[in-house]
Design a protein that fits this description.
The protein is of the alpha+beta class. It has three domains: 120 residues, no CATH class; 103 residues, no CATH class; 101 residues. 32% of the residues lie in helices and 20% in strands. The strands form four sheets. The chain has a five-stranded antiparallel β-sheet with strand order 1-9-10-11-12, with no helix packed on it. The longest helix is centred in the C-terminal third of the chain and has 39 residues. It is elongated and about 115 Å long. It starts with a helix and ends in a 9-residue tail after the last helix.
Length: 377
């Protein structure tokens, strides 16, 4: 039962991300549909939480269109004057759904008995016997001459969420995983919700233009492994999510030969399953942390014991013992430096040898950079 609940939770999360990919809406938050309407045509459907709805249709050649309502409404017509007076139309002729509908309540609940008006003002400011009902934006829609224009892209990545958006109040903005935001221009963010690379240290970002990116497209790799790949819903270029910063910077893929055939040295196969297995990764991370402790503690102990022996030789005031202890101290310092540098050198060699093999690279990261382990999952 518990397992089914967990699976249901993840299903709901996945569906919520997949259904909120790219959204355009009016000033009041009504989704804008991409219908093939003439420039001056109107197709507006306003739904309210009590079940009331108003549908306004008008072709570009009509002076007055049609109105369909769930409740009795006699004062509203599809002329510009009526629509403007009832908050359906702005001064520039664009349309939107009013935020509230008010009127006489139905004795049985549900839709109003009769609609008395529409407003964008907070109903708490009104002192009347009318019932005010809010706009249900998720069930409403607009096409044609819609007011305003906003859009939001919600990206998911290793550090959390990145949000890019445009609205009439704040203009163009990008919100970073740490909660900070940056005001940008239209050319700096994409309404198409393209995949993006994000440097978590500098907060620089670039949108992905293709699979296996070229070094001419990106200049984010100030330090390796600083780059995370963020997508809204399904990645448009999923292969980029597994690219190391080294791969992005050099724009090369050693997994293919010069003739375009697959290099057998870089076949994923069982290695892909091993390096992406969570239990294996946890084990490798433990080894990596242990290796980090060893490379710090062992050199320190060598230097400390060497210094103690050297101090004892000086205290004994024997020239031979001092010279011998001095040589041993220098040797221990050299050995300590070597022990400290060996993991770094081995990591660098493994990067060169395994370059292009993303599965192999995941194992390498888990051992030598355990904090970044699992970012490809």
């Amino acid at each position: 039962m518990r397992k089914n609940i967990i699976l249901l939770f993840f299903f709901i999360v996945i569906v919520s991300f997949s259904t909120n990919v790219y959204a355009k809406g009016t000033t009041n938050g009504v989704p804008i549909k991409d219908d093939d309407l003439d420039k001056n045509a109107i197709s507006l459907y306003c739904s309210y939480y009590n079940g009331d709805y108003i549908k306004i249709m008008r072709n570009s050649s009509e002076s007055e269109g049609s109105i369909i309502s769930s409740s009795e409404i006699s004062f509203l017509s599809a002329t510009n004057v009526r629509l403007k007076a009832s908050h359906f139309m702005n001064a520039d002729g664009t349309t939107d759904c009013p935020l509230y509908i008010f009127g006489d309540p139905s004795p049985t609940g549900g839709p109003l008995q009769s609609i008395q008006g529409f407003t964008n003002a907070n109903p708490e400011k009104h002192n009347s016997d009318y019932v005010y009902v809010g706009l249900n934006t998720s069930e409403s829609s607009c096409a044609g001459m819609c007011s305003g224009d906003w859009w939001t892209c919600v990206y998911s990545g290793r550090e959390g969420r990145i949000i890019t958006q445009y609205d009439n109040d704040n203009g163009y903005r990008i919100y970073f995983p740490n909660g900070q935001y940056k005001n940008v221009t239209q050319k700096d963010i994409s309404a198409n919700c393209d995949d993006l690379y994000y440097n978590r240290r500098t907060q620089d970002y670039q949108f992905a233009t293709s699979e296996n990116s070229s070094k001419n497209d990106y200049n984010l790799c100030k330090n390796r492994n600083d780059i995370d790949y963020y997508c809204e819903g399904d990645c448009r270029f999923p292969g980029n999510a597994k690219l190391d910063c080294y791969d992005i910077d050099n724009g090369t893929d050693s997994s293919t030969n010069s003739d375009g055939t697959r290099n057998p040295m870089y076949e994923d196969g069982e290695l892909s399953e091993i390096c992406n297995d969570e239990k294996i990764q946890n084990t490798l991370k433990f080894v990596g942390r242990l290796l980090f402790i060893v490379k710090i503690i062992v050199p320190l102990l060598l230097i400390i014991f060497g210094t103690i022996d050297f101090g004892k030789a000086i205290a004994a005031s024997k020239d031979d013992s001092v010279a011998k202890a001095g040589k041993m101290l220098v040797l221990r310092i050299v050995i300590g430096i070597v022990i400290f540098l060996v993991p770094t050198v081995v990591n660098f060699v493994f990067q060169l040898v395994g370059h292009g093999n993303t599965s192999y690279n995941e194992c390498r990261i888990c051992i030598f950079e355990p904090k970044l382990c699992g970012r490809g999952r």
